[in-house]
């Protein structure tokens, strides 16, 4: 039995970690920290968990947490995770950071985009970017995982096969991504009120979103080449899901069948990636509440463009589910353990 | 391993049966019939199931279905289930009808409200109304279960303790219920389009809804008295959930604490019923995707009224989940088998 | 041309006042105050208004506002309006308070339910409760109007004819009301986030909502009798609209036709009240964006209950539209001036 | 007073025509035809119109309609409008076709993409594509207007200034467009049910949507060059609105300020186009219920890409509102007549 703790359990990602771990057959949640709900039952903070999870939210004492845990999930605002990790590095426990602190190879890139200095730059070279479909082998032996951002997960999985196989012009890549508002978290804010989100769609942070350098870093490794995509995030009125519509120009014209064949082969051992048949494009509904990433294709022959549509649940495959998938790999469990339930269709 | 079949698998209730049974540890789905999707993979009809369920939708041949199944879930328009059951009565297999055909003690009441004649009235006295929290013992030995309607589930569970204990004036009972539109099924219709449901609330079939006699039948048994409630169903713009706000006049003034105590005692062995603390009223969000029924209370002292708020997921506790709970009981399994996952908070 | 100012223009009610007044043929907006957006264009606060309204939000200086205005709409948290009005009473300008400060005949009732002391109790006997369909004549000469609450508007209009005609048992009245979340305003709060409201329905403040004494006060006047209803507000996932489903026991059984006839007669001169035909119950969609109140009926004969369904747009007829209707009456204009546009069906 | 008729008044576009025309000061609706609601009051079909519009839906008799009308709006499935127009060409009345029949210069392109033969190809050279911001002068004298599609409106207005000024590489243009589901009309269909649209986003008809050739035709004229964009439509869970995020590569790097200046100049006389300031991207909420098109910009310097975000209400500026704007121009009225009301912010 793995003893797992969640530091920052009362945000939406924390809640999803608790929800999924509560039915994980090989894990026991031993600690859950919070800033705002100290002493409260997790079931009072998220009443959906009542009767299923018995857990009192505690104030953060990182030493206590680390001592009782085999693995710690850090679900905190950026900057905090690196500082906490520094405090407990000597304990040599497994850490999965759900935030941005351990996603970057370069301290400088992180510090430029996130505006804080990194508290633990010396470990960055040992840290693993936790996208199992790409880095499965490295994750097995990792001690610190930077769990990928939600947008990057949908985009990198959508592009990996064509980049590794050098099929597209890298300077042509655009990702137009549509996200549920849960990606903005559970903080009180006027702009995320029901009245301000319902019935409307908007773009934001065009070419300035903090996930941009993370996407570029990983795509560049896959392409063995410097990749700088144009990335436009949007908010659509829904609670879960990201759909990334990715555009790239093909070096040579090809068929949808060939592309589909390539992707099926590439993701053969990755049961959470489902490749759609010709003419089928995924909806976020299809992955709602599950750890799947569904990918479909179209070719605009006239323009020699490949259009890739990639759908995930942003709080599962884009956050908590992927974290648990990483944990499974780190502890030698089947990757799908605790993540087998299909999503909700309606 | 229980071999289960679903007759009518491509509606929303059918889909939920497949979804939940797909992770049930003691069940194997051996058949799934359909009218409109014969020969298609269930994962093409409901892409959320892809990669999790391998099942080809077949045309209905009830003999074939019965032969290979230990239990058959019938998820059909009213009238069809009784006729089908008649054909296969001699096989002596377990049947759970998700529709109205086996919910009534009286052939006459059924025929009056549903406008068809009953094909198998002779079994009605042996059939069990499948509300486990009330009829658990009878369900154990039942061969045919009439699975309760969604509204009745939320209302009967909300009222059972006060009726059995004779605490309220039965002629004062009103249930004002708010339902998700999934209760209307998956048929093409103008009135259920997104554009016609989104952003609006409406009442319908006031005091004429077909669940009214079902509610009255069961409440009357609990009260040992003729009960005729006023029942107003509403549609609210959501995909899952029913909230019933139930009003009744107390015979003697009492406290919320006493009511809560009574309900906790009454549902002590029923782990799917969660009784809220004083001042807490359930939201349908809290039961989203789960088999729970959450119940909260308020007392309007001036008017000597007890207000009971009862929340379920209409397609789980109000349909498929309850059906599986019944199956568990019929086969001697723990009632919660396959139904342990908490719902989604967001 | 009427010079109108809005004190508190950057909440949702303030925005609706600006929106509707911007096309009002006899009004000019001369002032709009704000706490959080001083110096900003109203079109930057609410971009829907860009190009239609030229108005810079100013800090509140009540003397300045009063001097340049014929009428002042106060859209402020309770307690503030009475204090402000006290400061400017001598100017003898028309005031319409969108909040609770001038809705009560009794200082004591107000102070008990709102928990603040009333700054200007001496005017309460001269103030008029601004429900035009009931108090049209008094509004004509009023200087200070207490604009009704949203729930009270839907409930009082729904009940006035039967109460004035003594047709129902007053102790039997229950209103189960379903509101859009815009009623909670534009303040930052976790509980009103899209993620917390979308896809769910909940009851709140059962029999404790501050609109309860306001409803009871007005219903008691109509019934010429002490009325204490049971009132349960709910939040449903929509941006506009209130549906009140009102239950009352008939003194003598009657027909829906008779009730409809009575209501049509009662509201003959009130063009914003639309009485539905038999068997038709209004949806909030039907009044979306308009100043209408739609009312429909059902009779539960067995229980001798009349069920009244009343629908309004909470920010129009439940707030800003009604305020402007009051203004029209106070200035001798046709009641419908500036309020003629039908609502949006989708 | 202009006598206007609407052929096909009981779809969503027809309803919007009636809604907006009902407050148009210079128009009287003299006829409204329907297939499914013959003899019914329009207020029974769309109850939002009750008490505001008195109009009985009639069966289509095109001769009768033409005789009593100065202008006829045709809101019909493609193929029907051309045939009807042929019947009444000799009457020489003004016709605005809301469908696709008169949007194409080339009979062949129309017939290829719509799969029907054109009944009236001989008038195509006289017909005017009714996008006032581009073709205002021609519209003045037109007898037959092909009212633009919703997606094309948002995309062409977004691109016209840069194309006319030859600032972008035309082969680089991509429009990723997000639409409300009302664009799919009011027909009964499973795929447009609330349960199938709510909470999810999807792409459809990638590079195959019938608006593609319409977009290309108009952009080619503006660019004086053959333009073939990549066009991906999406459905997002809302009732009104289209957001087009348009990507194109700049021939020479420029600043957002310069682009904004160019657009403000280009649309100086077009009061329905609102150009956003630097760093502001429009939301569909900002144009909800109004005839505005809001356009904002970002420049991805690294990739030399200009990103244009264009927002309209698909049933107003994308259909009925634009039709009425065209009518105003055809009859010498100020373009904004009847279209002055700001949209709803919430």
From TrEMBL, chains A, B, C, D:
Keywords: Amino-acid biosynthesis, Arginine biosynthesis, Cytoplasm, NADP, Oxidoreductase. The gene is argC. Catalyzes the NADPH-dependent reduction of N-acetyl-5-glutamyl phosphate to yield N-acetyl-L-glutamate 5-semialdehyde. It is an enzyme of class 1 (oxidoreductase). GO terms for cellular component: cytoplasm. This is N-acetyl-gamma-glutamyl-phosphate reductase. Belongs to the NAGSA dehydrogenase family. Type 1 subfamily. GO terms for molecular function: N-acetyl-gamma-glutamyl-phosphate reductase activity; NAD binding; NADP+ binding. It comes from Oxobacter pfennigii. The active site is at 150. Residues 3-142 form the Semialdehyde dehydrogenase NAD-binding domain. Its main location: cytoplasm. The keyword Cytoplasm applies. It is found in: Cytoplasm. InterPro entries: AGPR, AGPR_AS, AGPR_dimerisation_dom, AGPR_type-1, NAD(P)-bd_dom_sf, Semialdehyde_DH_NAD-bd. Pathway: Amino-acid biosynthesis; L-arginine biosynthesis; N(2)-acetyl-L-ornithine from L-glutamate: step 3/4. Its EC number is 1.2.1.38.
């Amino acid at each position: 039995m793995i003893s797992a703790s969640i530091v920052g359990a009362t945000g939406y990602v924390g809640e999803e970690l608790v929800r999924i771990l509560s039915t994980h057959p090989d894990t026991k949640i031993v600690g859950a920290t919070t800033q705002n709900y100290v002493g409260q039952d997790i079931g009072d903070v998220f009443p959906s968990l009542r009767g299923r999870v018995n857990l009192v939210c505690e104030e953060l004492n990182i030493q206590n947490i680390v001592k009782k845990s085999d693995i710690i999930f850090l679900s905190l605002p950026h900057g905090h995770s690196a500082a906490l990790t520094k405090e407990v590095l000597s304990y040599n426990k497994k850490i999965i950071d759900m935030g941005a602190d351990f996603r970057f190879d370069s301290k400088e890139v992180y510090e430029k985009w996130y505006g804080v200095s990194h508290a633990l730059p010396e470990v960055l070279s040992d840290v693993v970017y936790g996208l199992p479909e790409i880095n499965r082998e490295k994750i097995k032996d990792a001690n610190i995982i930077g769990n990928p951002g939600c947008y990057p997960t949908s985009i990198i999985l959508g592009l990996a096969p064509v980049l590794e196989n050098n099929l597209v012009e890298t300077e042509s890549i655009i990702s137009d991504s549509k996200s549920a508002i849960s990606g903005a978290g559970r903080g009180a804010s006027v702009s995320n009120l029901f009245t301000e989100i319902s019935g409307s769609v908007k773009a934001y942070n065009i070419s300035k979103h903090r996930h941009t350098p993370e996407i570029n870093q990983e795509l560049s490794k896959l392409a063995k080449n410097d990749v700088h995509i144009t990335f436009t995030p949007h908010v659509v009125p829904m609670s879960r899901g990201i759909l990334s519509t990715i555009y790239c120009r093909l070096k040579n014209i090809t068929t949808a069948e060939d592309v589909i064949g390539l992707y099926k082969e590439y993701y053969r051992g990755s049961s959470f990636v489902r490749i759609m048949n010709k003419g089928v494009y995924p909806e976020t509904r299809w992955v709602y509440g599950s750890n799947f990433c569904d990918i479909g294709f179209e070719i605009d022959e006239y323009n020699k463009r490949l259009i890739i549509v990639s759908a995930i649940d942003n709080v599962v495959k884009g956050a908590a589910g992927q974290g648990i998938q990483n944990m499974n790999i780190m502890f030698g469990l089947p990757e799908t353990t605790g993540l087998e339930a299909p999503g909700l269709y309606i």
